[in-house]
Amino acid sequence: MLLKIVYLLVCRILGLAVLTVRRDQSKEAELLVLRHENAVLRRHAGRIRYGPADRVWLAALARLIPRRRWAEIFPVTPATLLAWHRRLAASKYDTSNSRKPGRPPTVRASPALSFAWRRRIRSGDTAGSTANWPSSA
Asked: To 5 degrees, how large is the angle CA 38–CA 41–CA 44?
């Protein structure tokens, strides 16, 4: 929920910034993407792993840059952005950690009732039960 609010706020703020300087919209967004990519590269050595804040930033800027320029500018593909979104949405509705594996426990009958049934079965008193229904016909 918090990530969604931050994402929407970043989109709106960038949208307002674009309204003030409409003609250089894609150029400014490209510069922001490249600056952000440089900042991420400075933080990491080796394989780049984008954190949640980086993903929000790239998703917000993706709306401002024309699709034909994405391959030249963005460090990730549109498919990667969609995969991030799918994982985020899936994790929101994931309930696998809240359930215990295996069969759910059954309600235990009172011991007195089970002892009474055992006594009736051993004595042969099954009158009124449906256990001997087919043979009684």
From this structure: 155
